[in-house]
Amino acid sequence: MTQSARRDTRGTPDSTPGTARRRGHPLSRLLHNRVAVVCLVLLALIVAASAFAPLLTSASPTRSTLDDAFAPPGGGHLLGADSVGRDVLARLLYGGRVSLLGGFIAVVVALLIGVPAGLLAGYYRGRLDAVVSWVASLVMAAPAIMVLLVSIAAIGPDTNATMAVLGLILAPGVFRLVRASVTSVREELYVDAARVSGLGDARIVRRHILPVVQAPTIIQSAQMFGVAVVIQAGIEFLGLGSAGQASWGAMLNEAFANLYTKPTMLVAPGLAIVITVATLGLLANALRDALLDTPGPAARRRPRPAAAPASTPGPADDDSLLAVEDLRVTYATRDGERTVVDGVSLTVRRGEVVGLVGESGSGKSQTAFAILGLLPPEGRSEAGRLSFDGRDLRGLGRKERNALRGCRIAYVPQEPMSNLDPAFRIGTQLTDPMRAHLKLTAREAREKALALLERVGIAEPERVYHAYPHQISGGMAQRVLIAGAVSCDPELLIADEPTTALDVTVQAEVLDLLRELQQEREMGLILVTHNFGVVADICDRVVVMRTGQVVETAPAEKLFAEPRHEYTRMLLDSTLEDAPPRAPLRTPATGGPLQETV
Ligand SMILES: Nc1ncnc2c1ncn2[C@@H]1O[C@H](COP(=O)(O)OP(=O)(O)OP(=O)(O)O)[C@@H](O)[C@H]1O
């Protein structure tokens, strides 16, 4: 995406007035919605009337006085009395408690089960997701009313227990909603970026995933509450609730029994149920408008083009900072296993810049992700050797990997904007990993972040520190990410096409910055690129990849002076001619044309 295109979708500092409206606090947006305010007031009145029933009426909801049977409204009974002389107002007020408590129990149970299950399944996917999704489908397939009736038969006529069972029945709906939200946000590059910076899963879920899940869950809760109130009334209406208690459903039952003699008895419980349910439904709509009117990250991971593998590894070096030997990355696909990195070997020494070059789809990013331990769950990697500073990275636990990533091995991605969470200020995103890894106080982390912002060439560090990602340009965002990447003084930096998404004018500045920081801190640097100009500018050594394999490894000068492999020559020629390297390739084995990858 070009810089200008990105500005169109993300906004610039000048576009803040437009975004300010959207960024207003959800509560203030809700309170600006008249329907929402009316609903909130009505709900508050219903809840207060039920909670303070003893203060509003001295009558008992269950005591019957046969002399008062069918007493008209007024006098001793403000809303009249029912067929056995019980006070209708008292039954209405106390009955609200049963309905509201029942709805509350059902929603809480559904949330307690659905939210954690959806978070875990959506975040970790794999077998856990498969099992939980299967159970959810099973529960959803069972007819809800039958399950409720069977549970009443088993537990007995206890309204609250029945509503807890209803919560179990509603939980798969919550699970699916949360799982879908997590799955979509999990693919966001800023979540990858948080993982790369070494933040633990709990922190990532709290910071980046939960805020996204929150809004749909709140909306769904309001809807579920309405459904639960109706079902609870239905159960009481059928006479299956707790015996002897006043409830709106029991009042409806009583009214139906006397439908022909006293039809007006339907009015009070009918209105109470309709108003409560309609209010919850309208409130859910208003919540949706208020909560979902926030700018979400639109950018998704770029679709990866397809490519077929070929071969030629290179040697590993013993005093190297990073040593990779015979790295393979495979994906299980419907058509069988697909190898996207095949026998890659490379080394990086301290203070050395290694360019990983090749056309799109040649496996550069997959190699980088495998080194970082960041392949998606469906991807598998294995290597003859994968060591960092003499330490074997194979089989490292999640915690140990996290401790290494972002701290000793850092990553700069190719799409700066998508790697910043739009919901948080730049300062928060910079200080978070520093506080986690370096155990800095909030104040120390802030000072370090401001110094870093200044170091990476940002003219107004304070402003950028307090800005949201949409308020800065793409070039600035990349500088911010570079500042974040070097914030914990890593020994190895992996930069995946760090200038691709930037304006041509900014590209050179960002490369200069990377080179300066690399020299200043004597970092090893793996620069993933398909641009030989970039390689010539800053790389000491070059690894050329094609279709998942290394075809040539050489010092940069040597590679330019005498490229050995035909593919390297073709890439170099296309760079010199300023033409895209897209001539049909021949596989070494068959000589047949390879698939076009872009
Ligand atoms: N999740 C996945 N499942 C299956 N194949 C994948 C997956 N992700 C990537 N690939 C494949 O891996 C191969 C290498 O992709 P990779 O992203 O490493 O290429 P690249 O050289 O970095 O390209 P680019 O310069 O476009 O980023 C591609 O053929 C791609 O289709």
TrEMBL record:
User: Keywords for this entry?
Assistant: ATP-binding, Cell membrane, Membrane, Nucleotide-binding, Transmembrane, Transmembrane helix, Transport
One Gene Ontology molecular-function label: ATP binding
Every ABC transmembrane type-1 domain range: 96-284
Q: Which GO terms describe its biological process?
A: peptide transport; transmembrane transport
Q: Where is the composition biased (Basic and acidic residues)?
A: 1-11
Would you say which domain of life the source belongs to?
A: Bacteria
The record's InterPro entries line, in alphabetical order, gives: AAA+_ATPase, ABC_Ni/Peptide_Import, ABC_transporter-like_ATP-bd, ABC_transporter-like_CS, MetI-like, MetI-like_sf, Oligopep_ABC_C, OppC_N
Tell whether Cell membrane is among the UniProt keywords: yes
PANTHER family xref list: DIPEPTIDE TRANSPORT ATP-BINDING PROTEIN DPPD, OLIGOPEPTIDE TRANSPORT ATP-BINDING PROTEIN APPD
What family does this belong to?
Belongs to the ABC transporter superfamily. Belongs to the binding-protein-dependent transport system permease family.
Protein name (Swiss-Prot/TrEMBL): ABC transporter related protein
